[in-house]
Task: structure prediction
Amino acid sequence: MLIGGEWRRAAAGEEIEVVNPATEDVVGSVPSGGARDVELAVETAKRAFPEWSATDVEHRAGILAKAAALIEERGKDLAATLTSEQGKPILEARGEVTHLAHGVRFYAEAATKVRGAYQELPSAFGPAYGMVIRRPMGVCAAITPYNFPLTLLGTKVAPALASGNTVVAKPASTTPLATLEVARIFAEAGVPDGVLNVVTGRGAEIGDALVGHPDVRRIAFTGETGTGRHIMSIAGPQLKRVTLELGGSDPVIVCADADVDAAVKAVIIGRYWNAGQACLGCKRVFVHDSVYDAFVGQLVERVGRYEPGDGTVRAEKPKLRMGPIHTRKARDELLAQLEDGVARGGEVLIGGGTGGHDKGFFLEPAVVAEPGVDSRLVREEVFGPVLPVFRFSDFDEAIRRANDTPYGLGSSIWTHDARLIHRAAQEIDAGMTWVNQIHYGYDELPFGGVKDSGFGKEHGIEALDSYVEVKSIVVGGLG
Ligand code: NAD
Result:
């Protein structure tokens, strides 16, 4: 792990092996941190804060821009590490690295453009005016999941550092390697020792120490809703600033006038990219009766092109590579959800097998027609390549069913009818609605959920506001 510019072992001396989910080979090992390591990392970040927060913003932005350039330059190596620990195909890993560099550069530029407010004020003490200033918060924790370890690191670390905070990052215990490489790059780009620290280890062993540490003022968490609730139960009583980017079950509404071909292509990416292990994704598709057969026919045909396998090896054309599910436990959970969907009336149109691999945690991408509304495929987040599809004939019913979920992260609608677009934008309870577009988290737009998908925003210029304390200043004695 990286603390204060030093590469350290865990205080307890233990290590965790990192396993390639496609081959089950051990590809590395990292220190298994504990409370003592967290204590040291937070103390170090706290000590580094005064000097870093006093640097001028152009200086911080310059370092981040350099880091972004180095990330791009080392893209090939970073992607190879990411594939080996996470499982995603190399092409997708390259995409994630590119997105990381874009996000880091976005905040390098955005931080230099933040402006404040000036307000003339009435006062019995003579002329006065008010200013609104923004002060960095101090030590921020950045806790990331296994599905997009790099982009989700960037969405936390870049706005935090650009705003003058220091960071203790904690990657998922199964995907720490690429994160450590990125931390090395930040150091090489000029981030001073102690400003960005990385503690590796299991969430259950170090999470509470990090979240509960009194000197950690800001927690940015991405992960499961259950973990988010637990974090909130510790951070809440201490009144810490928290953003929770949690699970999702995004609805897609395909209307009668939809461009079916485009909708199918987007849904394929939205559900099967990263082997379906995405928070944003097309997780429940509602298709108008009049285009249902055309949509489902094309969908099943295209899903059949996927070939699950080792992400380092390209599939032979016209097949497309899909990586493994990240862990055996997660794959088995998907099989149980699928089985429940079938038991509750769903029909598997394609996929759902484990593909006859000797090693690795594979699942053949599946489409399931009409599982019951009480099935796990509908009620729960499905974190893998399994897509339930449903018919609808009445738009009110489609909106009602889209909202009939505990989650509220993304959503999309496929139509050119402005009235329906307006209704989807106004009536779907979600943090985002895409119109005739794929579910994609743009760096330029605020992103985050409602309901059990959490609260607070990452991405966008808005995210910078969540790394500062807004303070009002009243100035008098002017004449
Ligand atoms: P997870 O909740 O199991 O783990 C996320 C991180 O939290 C890991 O680093 C883990 O070690 C850590 N952690 C675990 N216990 C902790 C504790 N007690 N205290 C502090 N940290 C702890 O999530 P996961 O399985 O790695 O990721 C998948 C989940 O993430 C899915 O539910 C997915 O929808 C969600 N996700 C959400 C977004 C979003 O932006 N909304 C993006 C990606 C993933």
The chain is about 40% helix and 20% strand. The CA atoms of residues 74 and 185 lie 9 Å apart.
